[in-house]
Amino acid sequence: MGPGAYLEFEKPVLELEARIKDMQAFANDENVELTKEIVLLERKLEKLKRETFSSLTRWQRVQLARHPMRPYSRDYIERMTTGFISLHGDRAFGDDRALIGGPAILGDWPVMILGQQKGRTTKEKLANSFGMCHPEGYRKAMRLMRLAARFGRPIVILIDTPGAFPGIGAEERGQAEAIARNLRDMALLPVPVVIAIIGEGASGGALGIGVGDRIVMMENAWYSVISPEGCAAILWREAGAQNAPRAAESLKLAADDLIDLGIVDQIIPEPLGGAHRDAAEAASVLKAVLLDALVELSSLTVEELIARRRTKFRQMGVYAEDDTF
Amino acid sequence: MEWFRKARAGLARQEKREIPDGLWTKCGGCGEIIYARELERRSWVCPSCEFHFRIGHQDYIRLILDDGALEEYDRGLVSQDPLQFKDKKKYPERITAAQQKTGLADAVVCGIGKIEQRPVSFSVMEFAFVGGSMGSVVGEKIARSIERAMTRRIPLVIVCCSGGARMQEGILSLMQMAKTSYLLAELAEMHIPYITVLTNPTTAGVMASYASLGDVIVAEPGAQLGFAGPRVIRETIRQELPPGFQSSEFFLEHGFLDRIVKRTELKSTIANLFQFLCGPTSGVNDPEGLRVKHQELETDTAE
Ligand SMILES: [Zn+2]
To answer: Which 205-224 residues of chain B touch chain A by CB within 8 A?
Structure first.
């Protein structure tokens, strides 16, 4: 594991794991009996993992959501589906590599699956704008969703973005319009739409592909109106950077917060320590949740589906009446 | 685009003092000293350079609605503190301060008014209330305005002025974008016309939802529009932004505005557009006799 490929709070766990592995290798190579010692260390490891990972702060979850080893959309698509055919382009300006998508088979279901793709290598990160969509990404997503709607196929969307790309070209080509239009046109899609926030869900950049019938969120994902850093920069100005952890707490951006606020329907548990510690397991749990949602939603008529989607979004918000005004 | 830079600098000064209180006031665009009465008579548009001073929601009601009359709805919807948001100043205190400053419960005023005798569902945002930011109350009031347009089958007008979603309500503010856009999908299905008026500024979460979804989108000259803030863009791309970037003129040039309309012509432009939009296949109940009255409107051939 290269430098920067782990988080500070993961370090003791990783070190202990490495020690156990070394000891096992030594025992095998030298044919020494170390079973008792290894069992003891393994017990210690279990305890340490529970202590480290069972009561994560919101900021630690944000860090896990950004973990360099965390599975990205493409990893999940590869593990969950067969026959994925990546389609490109918005038929207007270009192809946004921050947004991947195309038909695939999920379980027994032909679906349109879309996701924001950050990129693993430096080259890929740059090509994908670190998972930040340009207007082309939102328009490509809408084009693929319409394709699914035309042929009666459900849509599965994986959200993982640090935000919509802030740039000159993005503004020139109507970033705001592209997101707004998706919000409106996803409303009446006549097929089931299942949304999974798998990593970062930053602001309009996430919501721009986030209108659907079932919204599920991975245990260590975050979803908010603004990133902790953005919030901290507004509240603490120059001292913003060191206050991002505080901002993460203020924003209530973790999965269980979003359940409490009535935004998210279900939390998808991750392997202890985060999805990156067992990507296969994470993908299989996510897949089961997506399939359950598809089974349930596909039993509804189009009218029922859209009526329920309307109710879901219509009731979002918290306010009171005060007749002194 | 030199005038634009000046205009921006002027705006920053003007924010401190919403309505000039002295007899004379300095134009934020050209620097000319103008008699305040004269400015007021010209709807706070500079007679020399047409710089549009920022005005409040009541000014837009007077400018756009017949007799300056709005039958207001949902005036008493107030924000809660669902996140118990931790900040230097508590969120409820911020809200109370804004309420005392503006006399409003939150950053938008909604109701029914008439434009050249045609009833419309009308909403106008108030920048003086926490930067016109959209939390649950703004989202809910806009949603109800859209629903009023649908149930009464009357056109919808929203005058936008907002820095975006309100941070202190977190994800709930973000979801107001989806909520309002959802209802606009239904409004569009019903063929009920919707005109958005973008004023300075209309950005971020508001620009990326209902502000960008009008059948016709007009903006006042020189307004700051767009999705991302200039500071964030500058820090991301590490280069200076071109002059006039994200102005009304910029978005007109790039094809995202139908038209730039001077403040004093907003009403006649909207009325003229409704004459077209409330046509035979529109979902609007068009009262008898409106057609004749609208033909008397002036033709706007200006580019
Ligand atoms: Zn002037």
So the answer is: 205, 207-213
